[in-house]
Amino acid sequence: MTKAATTSPATVPTANTQQTRSIVIIGALFFIFGFVTWLNSVLVPYLRIACELSNFQAYLVTSAFYISYLVMAIPSAWVLEATGFKKGMSVGLLVMAVGALVFIPAAYTRTYGLFLLGLFILGSGLALLQTASNPYITILGPRESAAKRISVMGICNKVAGALAPVALGAVVLKDADSLVARLKTMNLATKAAELDALAARVVTPYLLITAVLVLLAVLIYFSSLPEIDTDHEDETVAAANTNKTSVLQFPHLLLGALAMFFYVGVEVIAGDTIISYGNAQGIALETAKFFTTFTMGAMIVGYLIGIVAIPKFISQEKALQLFAVIGVAFALGALSTSGITSVLFIALLGLANSLIFPAIWPLAIAGLGRFTKIGSSFLIMAIAGGAVLPPLYGGLADAFSPQQAYWLVIPCYLFILYYGLAGHKVRR
């Protein structure tokens, strides 16, 4: 008689246990996304001083970083087709490590172009990571609760985003106000030496970031993260997509990508301009360097609301509509007040932005079936909104004022509102 298997059910990981492990691993990646991304809020004022830049030039930091999503999103889909999700994530982390290393020669030579190159490479690695991780977390469980899972990822992202500017700001913006005042009285040689010393402050932080990224790449490669087959379509989706030959035949995806473009633009404006805006409102950089943390804190509050409320009390569509309206209201508040009150309204844009991304993503990729990977690439390409809108804000700030430049965000929120009301329902 053949002996029956004696493996205890307790020794076999359940589907829920595996899902929880996967969520923890992806959560760690979203933490890295947030930490690296929101360092830019400190790099903008830091490089404006160290490399003697205008507002427009300084906000090219965001352009170099976010334009990589536009350039690399489609190649990222190709990489994922060849490697699968897990190996692709490891490759993305290693690419980011290369970008962080470029900051070392950039700092020692105080070459703004090298800083921008490093940011582009960092963004390229992130594009690959996001192309893999966003659809992964969406598909990992029921679609109707996808916004809830993405909200959990958002908390990981924004906790890191709250810590990053404080950590880097404490190093690179230490005594920045007194340094700016002293620079005005120095001769050229002394000024160059002071700026060289300021530029060198980023060397140690970015060496540490490089080491962490390499370590994570190794850990992800050997992790238990399962592969997910996004090419499989259930019978209903397959029937609906029978005559579809191109991702361009999904107008709700294309409109969703445009909504994502505007969303990322306003999110980056809210997070990356607030330090400089606070300084323009007469608040010392020593204090203003914490303002991005307030924006991230407001986003975390919004994500917590999403975890509790979606889909139990409010649908993903209704959340998108509500928070777009809140964005318009807070933007008008920032434009109609001054000083710390106006700055706080910009920080509160973080609350408005919090549930927009988690709602757009599942609405935009709904029903794509075998087109999910390439559709996700379109949404990743739309992150280039962070490359276009912040420099446009900087140009408006130079031409008018940092406060009046915030009029830019209102039409963006209005389009997001349209997508929540009707755009996601458009089918062909």
UniProtKB/TrEMBL annotation:
Entry's Pfam families? MFS_1
* Main subcellular location: membrane
Which residues does the UniProt record annotate as the domain Major facilitator superfamily (MFS) profile?
22-428
State whether keyword Transmembrane helix applies: yes
**CDD domains attached to this UniProt entry:** MFS_FucP_like (cd17394)
Q: Which residues cross the membrane?
A: 23-44, 56-79, 91-108, 114-132, 152-173, 203-222, 253-278, 290-310, 322-340, 346-367, 374-393, 405-422
Protein topology in the membrane: Multi-pass membrane protein
Q: Which InterPro entries match?
A: Glc/Gal_transptr_bac, MFS, MFS_dom, MFS_trans_sf, MFS_TsgA-like
Location(s), subcellular = Cell inner membrane
Its keywords, alphabetically, are: Cell membrane, Membrane, Transmembrane, Transmembrane helix
Role summary: Intake of glucose and galactose.
Q: Which family does it belong to?
A: Belongs to the major facilitator superfamily. FHS transporter (TC 2.A.1.7) family.
PANTHER family per record: L-FUCOSE-PROTON SYMPORTER, N-ACETYL GLUCOSAMINE TRANSPORTER NAGP
Would you tell me the protein name for this molecule? Sugar MFS transporter
Q: What is the species of this protein?
A: Hymenobacter defluvii
